[in-house]
């Protein structure tokens, strides 16, 4: 057991994996999470991809590690990375991810019946159908990534004979969702509408429709990607009684002062500018990933970088990552696939590696 304490801000997949890897290297770790539970984006994985029993198994493994959990505390309000360094932590990892939904910035966006994808998916896992009831006869999902497909496929399970439409401003070749997710959506009856851009959401007290404009390709932009232009006089209205917005997320760094000078990934999470992800503040690191799998990988790399930094600081060799499971590790990948339009998991027991659960009590090895 080492004396070099490390603090991690963020209990999502990046922070969880970093905490795990640092703890098995012998570092005492404190993980700060502003929610009352850990898991972050893992909590939004639909239960037809990941079953609850896997999460319980993971939690049991975590309890054997030297990790202190601090739940319900917000960075920038209750503490800062600098204040944690002042308390005696020798390194701090900012792993807050990108969880603040991007806005559409169109009229009617805040009508009842308009939801952002991640809160919608979280609610579906907590009480499938309980919070939203039966979604009605027509649901529109705006977006084209894996989160959009998760939302569309989850909504499909609630419509009971209704219709789920996925609206995207570009074409099918530009979708960021994996082929497995796209195929699953098609098999389950999600209808795809391409080359439509949202212009306004209609309704009085509740959403009644989505106004879209047709789009077409214009000249390439500065990065060589084909730009989009709207077609004049091409407005049309898609009647619906629920809209799920899945156009990406950004990080909430309002509680961090400018000294950290984060750079931001194209998908919104903060990173340190140095190759080892250290920020401009000595001992403060930052990283993340675009999916659960990528975020967990980033957490593992950050843990190795932090251990190397502390080893150099204290004149020792970096610690290799031991195998805590005697030859096999929990696979971090949640295998995608089609499980039918039910909540039955595609692969029961898959997806070990992180958990959504009330933060467990402090444990030591």
UniProtKB/TrEMBL annotation:
Domain FAD/NAD(P)-binding stretches: 5-289
Pfam families (alphabetical): Pyr_redox_2
Stored InterPro entries: FAD/NAD-bd_sf, FAD/NAD-binding_dom
Region described as Disordered: 315-365
GO MF, any single term: oxidoreductase activity
Protein name: Oxidoreductase
Organism listed in the record: mine drainage metagenome
Taxonomic lineage of the native organism: unclassified sequences, metagenomes, ecological metagenomes
């Amino acid at each position: 057991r080492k004396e070099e304490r490390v603090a991690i801000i963020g209990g999502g997949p990046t922070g969880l994996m970093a905490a795990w890897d640092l703890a098995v290297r012998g570092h005492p770790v404190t993980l700060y999470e502003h929610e009352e539970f850990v898991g972050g984006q893992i909590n939004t994985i639909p239960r037809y991809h990941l079953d609850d029993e896997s999460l319980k198994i993971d939690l049991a493994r975590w309890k054997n590690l030297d990790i202190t959990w601090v739940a319900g505390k917000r960075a920038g309000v209750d503490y800062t990375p600098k204040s944690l360094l002042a308390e005696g932590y020798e390194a701090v990892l900012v792993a807050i991810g990108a969880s603040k939904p991007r806005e559409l910035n169109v009229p009617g966006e805040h009508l009842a019946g308009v939801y952002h994808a991640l809160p919608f998916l979280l609610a579906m896992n907590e009480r499938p159908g309980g919070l939203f009831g039966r979604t009605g006869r027509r649901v529109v999902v705006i977006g084209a990534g894996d989160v959009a497909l998760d939302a569309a496929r989850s909504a499909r399970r609630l419509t009971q004979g209704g219709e789920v439409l996925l609206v995207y401003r570009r074409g099918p070749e530009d979708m960021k969702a994996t082929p497995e997710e796209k195929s699953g959506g098609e098999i389950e009856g999600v209808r795809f509408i391409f080359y439509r851009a949202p212009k306004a959401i209609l309704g009085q007290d509740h959403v009644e429709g989505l106004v879209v404009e047709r789009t077409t390709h214009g000249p390439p932009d500065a990065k060589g990607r084909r730009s989009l232009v709207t077609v004049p006089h091409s407005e049309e209205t898609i009647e619906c009684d629920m809209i799920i917005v899945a156009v990406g997320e950004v990080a909430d760094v309002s509680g961090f002062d400018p000294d950290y000078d984060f750079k931001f990934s194209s998908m919104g999470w903060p990173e340190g500018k140095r190759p080892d992800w250290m920020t401009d503040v000595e001992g403060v690191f930052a990283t993340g990933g675009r999916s659960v799998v990528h975020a967990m990988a980033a957490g593992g790399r950050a843990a190795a970088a932090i251990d190397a930094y502390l080893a150099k600081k204290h004149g020792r060799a970096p610690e290799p990552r031991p195998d805590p499971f005697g030859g096999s590790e929990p696979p971090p990948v949640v295998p995608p696939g089609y499980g039918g339009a039910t909540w039955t998991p595609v692969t029961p027991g898959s997806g070990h590696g992180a958990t959504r659960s009330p933060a467990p009590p402090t444990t030591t090895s």
